Amino acid sequence: MKADEMWKVSTGKGVKVAVIDSGVNPDTPSLKGQVLAAEVPEGVGYKATEDYNGHGTSMAELIVGTGSGGGLKGLAPEAKVVPYRLAFPDLKDEAAAKKAPNTAQAIRAAADSDAKIINMSFGAPTDYPAEAAAIKYAQSKGKLMFAGVGNDGETKNLVGYPAAYPYVVGVAASDEEGTAGVFSERGNYVDLAAPGLNVPAWCDATFRSYCTRRGTSQATAIASASAALIWSAHPDWTAYQVLASLIDTAGRDWARDDPSTYLGYGLIRPRKVLENADFDPGPAGTDPLAKENVTGITENSPASPSEAASAQAPDRTPGGETSAAGSSSESSDSMWVALGAAGAVLVIGGGAYAMARSRRRA
Questions:
Q1: Is 22 in contact with 85 (CB distance < 8 Å)?
Q2: What is the CATH number of the domain that holds 121?
Q3: In this structure, are residues 79 and 16 in contact, taking their beta carbons and an 8 Å threshold?
Q4: What is the tens place of the pLDDT at every residue in 261-309?
Q5: How many domains does the chain fold into?
């Protein structure tokens, strides 16, 4: 992906990303000036800038972190985030949980905002009609939505929502060799893949140190940041065109019309769009996922057994909270998300696709 080269063309300037999560702390060194809390409507903005577990702040930093003060430098460091705080199960303050918006309310508020992209790094195996309607509303407002497909791939591999809703781009997690994480859920609702292993994130809500994490949450944030880079460079493109460009340039060694149930259309490579000033994104009004959105879910591959893993509870839960293995390998085409002056973490390579793939039946 070569972030340093991409930043010569685009840094995400002018693009706003709605981060629907556990809240976003605007006072971390990397997020000072990056969080537009004033743009959240009062009715859905209760304590949006108080992150009770560190997850939402980590996602925001992966997207727009500046790297200041030794903090995380995100992939779109001149984009901005608009925070929305949901009441996930680990929010123990019952009064605050009652005042928090539900997922549908947050999505509708984001749809009515100036944010072009909606990042949803959470999920559960429950299809709610109100959420589906909110997603359709956001699509009608021209928003591009990303959600993690889930981290239950080693056990039940349940269909995850909101990733499985039509018009939401389901994002899987891959390692630096282009292999899908064993935890990353699979099915025909997986549309794209992004780095999701060995990714830095805040250890907890004290915001004192970073830990190594894994999850489709992190992959979703990097996918949203990739879209922000492209949209910043091509502000006249529609959400369909931004998504089509990501799909057309995704790294894969399988047929374009035969997406993988593990990695979808492949690994995101926004550099391939940005390096071509004359890139053709296709028609403004053509949905690149029209086939999937019409067909719906047709396959959910059986999970491989694992004695160590456990199923997630059927609540809307932020993913990626387990520790990741610490190995990494070299690649000729890698992306770095930097930890400021403290160094950098290699989170993806674009060279190999050594995994066994299951095909969609859509």
A1: yes
A2: 3.40.50.200
A3: yes
A4: 999 999 999 999 999 999 999 999 999 999 888 877 775 543 332 222 2
A5: 1
